[in-house]
Design goal:
- The chain is an alpha/beta fold and 217 residues long.
- The protein has one domain (35-215): Leucine-rich repeat, LRR (right-handed beta-alpha superhelix), CATH 3.80.10.
- Helices cover 18% and strands 15% of the residues.
- The strands form two sheets. Strands 3-4-5-6-7-8-9-10 form an eight-stranded parallel β-sheet. Strands 1-2 form a two-stranded antiparallel sheet.
- A hairpin with a 2-residue loop joins strand 1 and strand 2 (33-36).
- The radius of gyration is 23 Å and the shape is elongated.
Length: 217
């Protein structure tokens, strides 16, 4: 009887120990802070995060909103499996390659402003987007967007930010009839191009100068 009791107690202790180990896998640690992997929203802004710091984010598959603005991130490949994301804020980092975002089909709001991005082909299939921010950074004159042809299929877009880039052809935007606001400040576009775009998108407020922006706010 005593042996059975001992075995039972020993078994319970083992189970408790195993449960304790399991709980460790229910969270991640970033910069000393612990976050449950069951979280759906996470903000990690202005923490000087580097690529190695965000490696644990690959386990946060329940996230629907993630804010990583104002950090020092260049590699976002760990975000590729976060397919539940509907909002992703990556502004003010050092990101050049956004191919990891191609499979995030549930995204509705994607903020990529102030990164040295040139190739935006990865957003072509993100057809649920309603807000897309691709504002360039004048500090990266050799790393600005010029080809926006992939945006033609993003017909659900309502707000599109393309300021401070090297875009010289906006004809592909004429089919984005759901746009309410289009930001084209500081791009090499002629008045004729803007006028033609305005005729195609009569319900869209088109900002081409800084003064237009302040007048509209």
């Amino acid at each position: 009887m005593k042996i059975r009791t001992f075995i039972l107690i020993f078994t319970v202790l083992i189970l408790v120990t195993l449960c304790g180990c399991s709980n460790e896998n229910d969270s991640i640690t970033i910069k000393g802070d612990v976050y449950s992997i069951s979280m759906t929203q996470l903000t990690l802004r202005e923490l000087s995060l580097e690529d190695s710091d965000i490696e644990p984010l690959k386990n946060m598959v329940n996230l629907t909103s993630l804010i990583l603005i104002h950090n020092q991130i260049s590699d976002i490949s760990v975000l590729a499996e976060l397919t539940n994301l509907t909002e992703l804020y990556l502004g003010f980092n050092q990101i050049k390659d956004i191919s990891a975002l191609a499979g995030l089909k549930n995204l509705k709001n994607l903020q990529l402003d102030n990164n040295p991005i040139q190739d935006i082909s990865a957003v072509a299939g993100l057809t649920n987007l309603t807000v897309l921010n691709l504002t360039g950074n004048p500090s990266f004159p050799d790393s600005q967007i010029s080809d926006i042809s992939v945006l033609a299929g993003l017909t659900n877009l309502e707000e599109l930010y393309l300021a401070h880039n090297k875009i010289s052809d906006v004809s592909v935007l004429t089919g984005l009839t759901n746009l309410t606001a289009l930001y084209l400040i500081d791009n090499p576009l002629s008045e004729g191009q803007i006028e033609e775009l305005g005729q195609a998108l009569p319900d869209t407020k088109i900002f081409t100068e800084i003064t237009d922006f302040f007048a509209g706010n």
